[in-house]
Design brief:
- It comes from Micromonospora parva.
- This is Lycopene cyclase family protein.
- With 415 residues, this protein is α/β, with parallel strands linked by helices.
- Helices cover 29% and strands 27% of the residues.
- A hairpin with a 4-residue loop joins strand 9 and strand 10.
- It binds flavin-adenine dinucleotide.
- Flavin-adenine dinucleotide binds next to helix 1, strand 3, strand 16 and helix 4.
């Protein structure tokens, strides 16, 4: 379909996934009713295509949508299993379906225009932004909020991926402990370069999401993910005869110190992973997306520009670059790194740190709990490479690869 007259709006949301859904809900929640809004995405997102796990204070906005939440989580290594009490925080599981449903309701109430086509070109003249869509339309927007997936602006000093496969397992009899989640279980065989762990998010004593995750430079094969997940299921002592795989979840999330510019031009604001909301050292993104959606909505409700604070403080991005480097160059073992963090700090402090919410004094305590010599080496290496980066031509970043999706029709059955 083509339309020669541009569609004039105040806000154009390019991409209608996680970040945009949270933003629509926030605009609705904050009573923003004076904005003409367009959403441009070739896909209308619905149903369960991902499960968000995150931590935070219990809250009246999100809690009604949660599938589960836990006050206690486990972190396991070959040496020990540690049960962490997260009070006053909680770890929570939110499936995408309720988030997309809430966004669809908000979209109706905000009288937003939906364009089911890709956004192709974006031209910002400083007062308006012209967006050309794949179906030949033009949207003229006061502001563009862009969450289309994209590689970072240039290659990072460390380029890892968080890549994973999860099975939603239904058991014939009670086998899961619904009172606590397994946050990270490092008893999985460790890859030659990178870190692996499993985790378990139970919604009842018979139903849980069990995942195998790697932080490493390269993806596995389809068979590789199935083998790793089968191995983790066995490590948990789960009897495959009494289990059915109800759903499979695959994903790839960037873990890199490469820059994701959040304000590429005056009237374009990037949100979500494209805007730097993914924490490089963990891949966690949800809390930053939620925070920024709230900030944008509050700003608009107050008649200000829809520009959120950076997803994480600059010093956190620097600490993440150092940590990623130490893990990548082999100076620090992943299980040992996370084990020491949780061993030497209250869990609540570590989680706030990972969300960018700690004070400098708390960060010194966190840094002191890592092994000093490799971290100093990584700090020096990072500093030297920053200088080299300034002197050499910019290297393009590799594209973030799509997830490896199982080839067998339907979910694989445990053998
Ligand atoms: C399976 C999975 C599980 C995850 N689990 C967690 C978790 O537990 N905790 C956590 O913190 N983070 C998690 N993440 C990371 C992150 O929270 C999600 O990736 C989140 O969906 C990112 O939101 P987003 O809006 O940046 O990207 P997306 O949700 O991927 O949305 C991007 C949108 O852009 C659209 N698009 C693409 N091209 C165009 C175009 N040309 N024009 C217009 N639109 C376009 C896409 O169709 C899509 O709808 C997970 C990611 C995945 C993939």
């Amino acid at each position: 379909m083509t339309d020669s007259a541009p569609l004039d709006v105040d806000l154009a949301l390019l991409g209608g996934g996680g970040a945009a859904s949270l933003l629509l809900a926030a605009l609705d929640r904050h009573g923003v009713r004076d904005q003409r809004i367009a959403i441009v995405d070739p896909v209308r997102r619905r149903g369960q295509d991902r499960t968000w796990a995150f931590w935070g204070h219990p809250d009246t906005d999100l809690d009604p949508l949660l599938s589960a939440s836990w006050q206690q989580v486990e972190v396991a290594t070959a040496a020990r299993r540690r049960v962490l009490d997260l009070t006053p925080l909680r770890y929570a599981m939110l499936r995408s379906g309720p988030v997309y449903d809430r966004a669809a309701d908000a979209e109706r109430r905000l009288h937003a225009t939906r364009i089911v086509a890709p956004a192709d070109t974006v031209r910002d003249d400083g007062t308006r932004v012209l967006v050309r869509t794949g179906d030949g339309r033009t949207v003229r927007a006061g502001w563009v909020l862009d969450s289309r997936p994209r590689p970072p602006a240039r290659a990072g000093r460390t380029t890892w991926l968080q890549h994973f496969r999860g099975w939603w397992l239904e058991a014939d009899r009670p086998v899961f402990d619904p009172t606590r989640a397994v946050l990270m279980d490092f008893r999985t065989p460790q890859p030659p370069r990178g870190v692996s762990f499993g985790y378990v998010l139970p919604v009842s004593d018979r139903y849980a999401l069990v995942e195998y995750t790697e932080f490493s430079p390269d993806l596995l094969t389809d068979a590789g993910y199935d083998a790793a997940l089968t191995g983790y299921r066995d490590l948990l002592g789960l009897d495959p005869a009494g289990l059915r795989v109800r759903e499979v979840e695959n994903g790839v999330i960037p873990m890199t110190d490469a820059p994701f510019p959040a304000r590429p031009t005056p009237r374009v604001v990037r949100l979500g992973t494209a805007g730097g909301a993914t924490r490089p050292s963990t891949g966690f993104t949800f809390s930053a997306m939620y925070r920024q959606a709230d900030q944008v909505a509050r700003a608009l409700a107050a008649g200000r520009a829809p520009v959120p604070a950076p997803a994480y403080p600059r010093r956190h991005r620097w600490m993440d670059a150092v940590a990623l480097r130490a893990l990548d160059r082999g100076g620090v073992g992943g299980p040992e790194f996370f084990d020491r963090l949780f061993d030497r700090n209250p869990a609540e402090r570590v989680l706030r740190f990972l969300d960018g919410g700690t004070t400098p004094a708390e960060e010194v305590a966190i840094m002191n709990s890592t092994r000093l010599v490799p971290m100093i080496a990584a700090t020096a290496g990072d500093a030297a490479e920053r200088v080299r980066d300034r002197l050499r031509p910019t290297r393009p970043a590799p594209a973030i690869p799509p997830a490896v999706v199982g080839t067998a029709p339907g979910a694989p059955r445990p053998t």
